[in-house]
Design brief:
Blueprint: H1 3-12, H2 54-67, E1 71-75, H3 78-86, E2 94-98, H4 103-114, E3 119-123, H5 128-134, E4 141-145, H6 157-163, E5 168-172, H7 177-180, E6 190-194, E7 208-212, H8 216-229, H9 235-245, H10 248-267, E8 272-276, H11 286-292, E9 299-304, H12 308-317, E10 322-323, E11 333-335, H13 347-353, E12 359-363, H14 369-382
Parallel strand pairs: 2-3, 2-4, 4-5, 5-6, 10-11
Antiparallel strand pairs: 1-7, 6-7, 8-9, 9-12, 11-12
Helix pairs in contact: 1-2, 2-9, 12-14
The structure holds pyridoxal-5'-phosphate.
Pyridoxal-5'-phosphate (PLP) binds at residues 77-79, 102, 105, 145, 149, 172, 174-175, 194, 196, 206, 208.
C-alpha cells in the first residue's frame, strides 16, 4: 500500500484512545484557556491556549501526518494561514503568486505589497512565456493555487520547483485536499489550506492550516507568529474539523464522482459555452492534472451562453445547489465569482484572470447524482 493511502487510514484513527483521564475513545475537547502548572520549574506541555492547546495540537498532528509534513500551525481561517505564511518574508524579498488566485488572497497580497511588506509579482504560471518572465529574477517565495479558483487552471508544481530551487514553495491545497494532491511529493516546502472547505467538509467551521514539510526552523517561526499574531484556531473549531477530517476520503471520492458526471453533462449541454474541469480532455491543464493529481476533484466552473442576467436566473432557479460562497461541504453550492468570491479583485484583475460575468462555479456535494442533474436541467429550462 502507498504511504499516501496509509496516511488516510491514520486520520480515521487520529487521537483515538489517547484520553489520559477516562479513556474516552474520541479525543476530548479542551476548551480551557489556561492550564495549571505544578511550580515555576515544573512546566507541563500546556500553559495558555493561545500558545498551545491539546485539541488544536491533535488536529495539527493529523493534518501534518496526512500531508506528510513535520508539523502544522492551525489557524482561525484560510486567510489567517496565508497571513502567517507571509510573515516569513522580509521587505526586500520577492514573492510570486498566481494572477488568478482566490479574490481575497489576491487582495491581501496586493495590499501588503503596497505597504512594502514584501515585493510582489502576479504571475501566469500556466504558460512558458509567463514562467520565463516570472523567473527572470529569483523569488524568495512562490505561492501556487492549483487548481486555481475559479477557473481550475493547473500549475505544474514540479516544474515550478525546478525553476526556483532556492525559493520557499508554498501550495494552497484547498481545492483538492490531501486525498487528491500531495504537493510535498512534487517539491513543495509548505502546504496551506482553508480547512473551512473539504477538510472540515460540513460548512460549519471557518479555519485554516499551514503545514511544513521538513524545515523545523520554518515551523518554529510560523508557530511563533501564530502565537504572537493570535491567528490561532479555536479549540472547538479544531474539534469539529478533526471530526470532519475522519470522513475526508469518502466524501471527496463521492463528490468527485458526482462532479465528473456533471462536467460531462454540462459539456454536452446546448446552453453551455465552456466547462472548466481538469478531468475533461479539452481542459488546458488536463495532462498535468493527470500526472500530478490523484483525481480531478469536485470543483468545476462553466460559462453559460448569455450575460450576467442569464447566469443569475440559472443560479436562482436551482434547488439542490444553494447559491452561496464557500465550497467543499457535503452539500452542493453554486457561486457567481464575479459578484461573490472574486469581487475583491476588482474588475480589471478579474477581466485579466478570465472571471467573466457569465461564469458560474459549482462545488459538487455528495447528494444523489440523479437529483443534481435533474436540478441543473430544470434550471436550464428556466433561463
Ligand atoms: N484559498 C482558497 C483557494 C479559497 O477558496 C479560500 C476561500 O474561499 C481561501 C483560501 C480563504 O479561506 P477562508 O475563507 O477559510 O479564510
Amino acid at each position: 500500500m502507498s504511504t499516501n493511502k496509509r496516511r488516510r487510514t491514520k486520520i480515521v484513527r487520529a487521537g483515538i484512545g489517547t484520553d489520559p483521564a477516562y479513556k474516552a475513545v474520541m479525543p476530548p475537547l479542551y476548551l480551557s484557556s489556561t492550564f495549571q502548572i505544578d511550580g515555576l520549574s515544573e512546566r507541563g506541555a500546556y500553559e495558555y491556549s493561545r500558545t498551545r492547546n491539546p485539541t488544536r495540537d491533535e488536529l495539527g498532528k493529523a493534518l501534518a501526518d496526512l500531508e506528510g509534513g513535520i508539523g502544522c500551525a492551525v489557524t482561525s481561517s484560510g486567510m489567517a494561514a496565508l497571513t502567517l505564511l507571509l510573515h516569513l518574508l522580509e521587505p526586500e524579498d520577492l514573492l510570486l503568486a498566481p494572477y488568478d488566485m482566490y479574490g481575497r488572497s489576491y487582495w491581501l497580497l496586493r495590499a501588503l505589497a503596497e505597504k512594502k511588506h514584501f515585493r510582489l509579482k502576479f504571475v501566469d504560471f500556466y504558460s512558458d512565456a509567463g514562467l520565463d518572465e516570472a523567473f527572470s529574477e529569483s523569488p524568495r517565495m512562490v505561492i501556487l493555487e492549483t487548481p486555481s479558483n475559479p477557473l481550475m487552471r493547473i500549475a505544474d508544481i514540479a516544474a515550478v520547483r525546478a525553476r526556483a530551487p532556492d525559493a520557499i514553495l508554498a501550495c494552497d491545497n484547498t481545492f483538492l485536499s490531501p486525498i487528491l494532491q500531495a504537493p510535498f511529493t512534487l517539491g513543495a516546502d509548505i502546504v496551506f489550506h482553508s480547512t473551512t472547505k473539504f477538510i472540515n467538509g460540513h460548512s460549519d467551521v471557518v479555519g485554516g492550516a499551514v503545514i511544513v514539510k521538513d524545515d523545523p526552523e520554518i515551523l518554529n517561526t510560523l508557530n511563533l507568529w501564530n502565537n504572537s499574531l493570535g491567528t490561532i484556531g479555536a479549540p472547538f473549531d479544531a474539534y469539529m474539523t478533526l471530526r470532519g477530517l475522519r470522513t475526508l476520503e469518502v466524501r471527496v471520492h463521492r463528490a468527485q464522482e458526482n462532479a465528473e458526471t456533471i462536467a460531462a453533462f454540462l459539456q454536452n449541454h446546448p446552453q453551455v459555452e465552456t466547462v472548466y474541469y481538469p478531468g475533461l480532455a479539452s481542459h488546458a491543464g488536463h495532462e498535468i492534472a493527470k500526472r500530478q493529481q490523484e483525481g480531478f476533484g469536485a470543483m468545476l466552473s462553466f460559462t453559460l451562453k448569455g450575460e450576467q442576467a442569464e447566469a443569475a436566473r440559472f443560479a436562482e432557479a436551482l434547488e439542490m445547489f444553494s447559491l452561496a460562497q464557500s465550497l467543499g461541504g457535503t452539500e452542493s453550492l453554486i457561486n457567481h465569482p464575479a459578484s461573490m468570491t472574486h469581487v475583491a479583485m476588482g474588475a480589471e484583475a478579474r477581466a485579466k484572470a478570465g472571471v467573466s460575468d457569465n461564469l458560474l462555479r459549482l462545488s459538487v456535494g455528495i447528494e444523489h447524482i440523479d437529483d443534481l442533474t435533474a436540478d441543473l436541467e430544470q434550471a436550464f429550462k428556466a433561463v
